[in-house]
Amino acid sequence: MNIYDYYVKTRDNKDIKLEEYKGKVLLIVNTATGCGFTPQYEGLENLYKKYHDKGLEILDFPCNQFGNQAPGTDNEIHEFCTLKYNTSFDQFKKIDVNGKNESPLYTYLKSQKKSLLGKNIKWNFTKFIVDREGKVIGRYEPVTTPEKLDSVIAGLL
After folding, report:
1. Where are the domains of the chain?
2. pTM to 2 decimals?
């Protein structure tokens, strides 16, 4: 399997196949609205505005597994992000990124790029970059801000 074989759920619970993003550079991130890293939404939106027309897509997967920092419904999370950070990139249904209920997409991403800290996602705002051919080329821990990924993304576009 490759990344384009996976399905994810939209905020309104519809299945979408990642094949729809074929040929795009993807920045996939698990997020939370009540986390110390939450202000990274601003940097993510800046990257999106800067590079979307050149082929960047940001896929935002809220996750409540770390300190219960993404409470609320999918719509409440989306409303928070759009009102506070003016986000306009794709935000999906809340998921688990570790454990028995983890998203198959995240099982795949973690199998492609392990962290120096191990296979599991350690916290909110872990980022994966996927090139236009669907290869996972990088995994970045939450302390890596979106701004630090600018040159990597620019190089893939």
Report:
1. 3-156
2. 0.95
